[in-house]
Every structure is written in C-alpha cells, then in structure tokens.
Write a structure and sequence with these properties.
The chain is an alpha/beta fold. The chain is about 40% helix and about 20% strand. The chain starts with a strand and ends in a 20-residue tail after the last helix.
C-alpha cells in the first residue's frame, strides 16, 4: 500500500472537490493494480471542514481516513501526524489544494518504488514547468523571488544542497518515516527543512523530480510575515541539529536513483 497524506487548515468548501478527486485517483490506481490510502489531517479547522469530511467519510471507504485535533498546530505537526498514522510501505504528502497533479504524485511514488528512500518534487528542476495565467505574472514573480531568497538562506544555514526545499510534494519509505519523523520538532512551514536536515544527517540520498505547478489565484499562506517566521524556524532548526546524532535508517532494498 502507498499512503497519501493531505494536511488541511480551513480549506473551505473546496475540500469537497479535493476529496472526490482523491477518491477517483484511488479507484484508478486500484484498477491499475496499485493500492493506495488517503489520510486527511485536519489541523484545528474552524471553517466546517470537519463536518464536510465527516459527511463524505460516512460512505465508509476504508481507503479514505480523516484525522484531526481541536487546536491549530501548524503544517509540520499535521504532516507528522499523517506520516506516523499512515499504513503504507511508501508515504507521500501533498497540499490540500492539489496544486500538484496526480501524475506528479505518481512520479514521486514511482521513484520510491524504484528504490529511492526520499523523493522531493522540485520546482527548480530543469524539466519543471510553471503554469501561470497572464494576470498572475507579477504575483508569481514576487513568489519566485521570495522562494529563491528563502532557499538561498536555507542552503547557507542548514547546508542543504536541494534547489527547492518547500515544494509541497514529498515522499519517503515507511522505514524513513518511522525512524526520522519522531525526531522532528518544527510544527510550522519550516517542517520541510527540519525533515531534509534529518535526512541529510542520516546519510540518506534524496531524489528530486520535476513538477508542473499551476497558479490559479493569489491565495497563499506564505506571505512576507510567514517568510520571516520560516526564517526564524530555520535558525531554530540549525541550532537544534547542531550536535544532535541521528540513528541509522535501514537501507533500501534497491539502489537509490540520483536523478529523475
């Protein structure tokens, strides 16, 4: 089984379209001979999302699970909760708005099935594409500049080689999740950096895959204020991992691919 984790904080009525899209994806994958589960993690939602998903989950499909808690804890806490509650031998997480298509989800899963232990989508991969309506060109440019500055700071502070730490699509084996995720402490958007720092300390190779990202509107939870919070989180991650040992993770059964 492969698990797909979707953290959610107040996504509104659009979460219903996500639910139905994921349900179709799971059905298509089963028909193709691959078994998946989806784990929705509600991060202290206050907009009725819990009621919406409870109604949808009442159909009783065991492949679709909903977890949640009352207090908003942040993306990192939600992803950690989902990764540890997942039952799959391979575990992926992606954004609740499905900014990355299911073809990209399949690409990450395929790299893991081929033997990679950790796979991350990268918007900076030479084969990646951004799909942007003309009216959002200025907004997308500002987002890209912000992303480039953050990634430059991350590489310098955490000594991570990755060109894109924050793309919202990543995957790992169950062995990696169960050994490293309990060591992570970042609850916010810096979770990805915390995870990749642990992966680097454990000596695990990371495969980067290309993605096609679409920008449909200006809705974003990562504005300027969030960017500064993320930098503070990165600094705390640097201090937390300065002299911290990481237990070894059992190696993958097949060689890790270095590029995809």
């Amino acid at each position: 089984m492969i698990s797909l984790i979707l953290p959610a904080y107040n996504p509104g009525p659009a979460v219903e379209a996500t639910w139905h899209g994921v349900a179709r994806f799971l059905t298509d994958e089963r028909a193709a001979g691959t078994e998946w589960e989806a784990v929705f993690v509600l991060d202290g939602c206050t907009d009725g999302t819990d009621d919406r998903l409870a109604a949808l989950a009442s159909a009783g499909d065991p492949r679709m699970r909903v977890l949640g808690y009352a207090k908003n804890r942040g993306k990192g806490h939600a992803v950690r909760t989902g990764l540890l509650a997942a039952r799959g031998a391979l575990r992926l997480f992606t954004d609740i708005d499905l900014a990355y298509t299911f073809d990209e989800v399949r690409r990450v899963a395929a790299a893991l099935r081929a033997g990679a232990e950790v796979v991350i989508a990268s918007r900076e991969h030479p084969d990646s594409r951004l799909v942007v309506p003309p009216g959002l060109l200025g907004y997308t440019f500002r987002r890209r500049v912000q992303s480039l500055l953050f990634n430059a700071a991350t590489r310098r502070l955490l000594r991570l080689p990755h060109r894109d730490t924050q793309a919202g699509l990543k995957g790992m084996t169950a062995a990696v999740a169960e050994r490293l995720v309990p060591l992570l402490t970042c609850d916010g958007f810096g979770f990805d950096c915390d995870l990749l720092t642990a992966v680097a300390r454990a000596g695990i190779a990371v495969t980067e895959t290309p993605v096609s990202v679409r920008y449909d509107d200006r809705t974003s939870t990562t504005g300027t204020a969030t960017g500064f919070r993320m930098l503070r989180e990165v600094w705390r991650i640097r201090r937390a991992w300065r002299n911290r040992p990481v237990p070894a993770v059992a190696p993958a059964l097949a060689p890790v691919s270095k590029a995809a």
